[in-house]
User: Fold these one by one.
Assistant:
Number 1:
Amino acid sequence: MHVSSEADSLPPSQLSFSLNKFTIDHRPCGRCQAEAWKARVLDPPQPPPSDPNREVLPTNLMLELIQGLQQTQGELAEAIKQLKEKDAEREKNPKKPRLFVRKPPYSTELLKQPYPEKYIVPTFSRFDGRKGSAFVHISKFIDSMGAYAGNGDLCLCEFSKSLDDRAYTWYTTLPPGSVKVWEDMVELFCGKYFQAEEKITLVNLHITKQVSGEDLLRYIHRFRDISLDCYANYEEGELVGVCIDNMLLEFRAHLKNLDISRFAQLLQKASEDSTINQASHREA
């Protein structure tokens, strides 16, 4: 190291110290520069040893991510392909929107037939399957069809409009195509809702008596309505006689010896005879 003033000139390879500027210049010598260059070029610093655990884990994770992305891209491409194929198929074969359509138990060809000219759908009596006679309902249905009662195909198509509640539910369960003609429907319907009706006999009429406090005219009407359901062929005069025999004593005594053979006569006598009316009022 050499200390000099500001006027002195020093070689670049020397160290100098300026008292005026208070600076210290340090410049390495040529040998030092050569050794530094050799160390930097010929013997570069080696990186620190790597940790195998820190290398493998990120690599495996990247591989899994890449494989997952490739699989997802493949599935997405396949889905897009299928959608394009479906769209192309729809364009080739456009379909009308399907509505709920229940197939009837008869041939669907009947649905294609138009109604007869000037035909007006009648107002049908309804059968619910809980009460009433199936045979009576068929008779009412045929009567409602009027001039078209002989059109079996039309009757077959219109019959469901006369059903309600439980009976209509039964109708909807009939297999499609199971009914060929109108007669088949009548047979199925009557077989399903056949009811063993109680038959009114003369024995039933003999136990149909006027009760205490019952109006005479009301009793006669009640007895006559029951006698109408009597399937045996009894003469009306015989039934009128049973009706009089079943009256209370005070009424029976006034009507027993009268020549009455019809219910209309019996009702007229009962309403016109003042003695009968007075007895009826006393009983009430």
Number 2:
Amino acid sequence: CMQGETDFKEVQVLPDKTVQFYYSLLDSRDSELPLLDHELIDKKLEKLVLSPTSLNQFLACPRSFYFESILGVPLSNNQYLGFGNAVHDALHLFLNKLKNGLEANPETIKELFEISIQKFRSFFTPKQFENYLAHGLDILPRYVEDKLPLWREADMLLAEKGIDHVIHKDVPITGRLDLMLRGKDGRLRVIDFKTGNVDNTVQLNKKLKPAKDYSDIGGDYWRQVVFYQILLAERKDANGHMDEGIMSFVEYDKYGQFVDRQFLVNYGEVEIVSDQLVDSYQKMKNHEFDVDCNRPECTWCSFIKNDYVLPAESIRESEEENEDRYLSFGEDTIQLHFDF
């Protein structure tokens, strides 16, 4: 999934509160995170629902969660996000055609991708659009040809399955599953489509790494799969227990092969992510956002440390590090505008 599902209610902030907040941004001598009035933050959090994206973001950097999910700092369009959205949209349309008995083959996905990428044309420069269109037309027919045998023999196919109104240990959670598939063997597989360079094994393995114990938060992709297990287990009327979670990469590797990473989630892993959910939710409720993540590449921690102005090069992040959220920046600096 390319974007998070965190849901918040709009809150009106009085003009004097806004002015006070802007002054706090200018007075950055202590390099601390300026918080809005705590009562106003509480109102923003009243409708908080955690998704895999929002949980991953808070665990990686509470300050990032604060700026993007609490303040709602607008994020710009980006070529990686545009391509990921176009790929997901095309695969969704393709799987629905397949499910409904319509023509669905490698040529079909090419036609659908050409339609889907047009929906996100504003995410690209003209040259980027040309390059990503060609790239999608190269990889998607090959990916579909590789996966079609499994999809065609499935007893059940559900694309873009949203699961809402779920409570886990008093924590409201939500999620959207790219594909739920029940094979002839009766096993229920939850499949998440991923774009990005599969040959960057260091970065990929970091995201796929299961947590070893409660002191280890594990990788984002592993946590996402366990999160889906929790969602399906709590949603009693869903399509059953998840037998297997799969991260399926639509880009082929340097050998021309497509990589799928299977996860068989165990009870201990569920308990670890459950603990992460409960602990993170409580910290959000306690407004524990001013925590330095100590990552040199972190946009928001750098923003605070550098008097609330960032050099553009400090927020140019790689495709592998960013699949859901991107910031706009000019040639030299980024200027933030907070809309309350």
Number 3:
Amino acid sequence: MLVFILTTLTAMIVSLSYLGSAQVKYLKDNWSELRCNPIYMPMASYVGVDPFSNFVKCTNKSFGDYAGAAMDPLHGQMSIVGDSLSEISETLGDMRGLFSNVRGGFGMVFSMVFGKIANLMSSMQYLMIRIQTLMGRIVATFATLVYTMFTGVETGQSAWNGPPGKIIRAL
């Protein structure tokens, strides 16, 4: 009878050890899903994970899930505010681009106008130089005529005061 009891106990211990090792294998294979289940949390050391760090991780995950649900309306409001601010920022960027284009357009118009004025001034300067040259030539021509007439007058006086003039006066 003692042998029967010992054999039965041995068989039960061996069966339980096989069942336990199968459960440990199942626990290791599915640890990522079972790690935060309160029934399996104390068995973290059988899987090779520190029970305290597992507890902290599961607590943080549970709190994060709860806080996420509790903070969802606030996140929604902040999302709306963020979207509004991004729209305002985009609009301000568009306005800045518009002002830049307007400034560039006015700058181009002014540069074209001043370019035309510079071209006109260049043409005017060329014409003034040509007029100055022409006036110099006219003055030189009149100076030549004046000196030619002066030479004619002097020649006439010299001839009048000289021997030909004496002959003409004597006659």
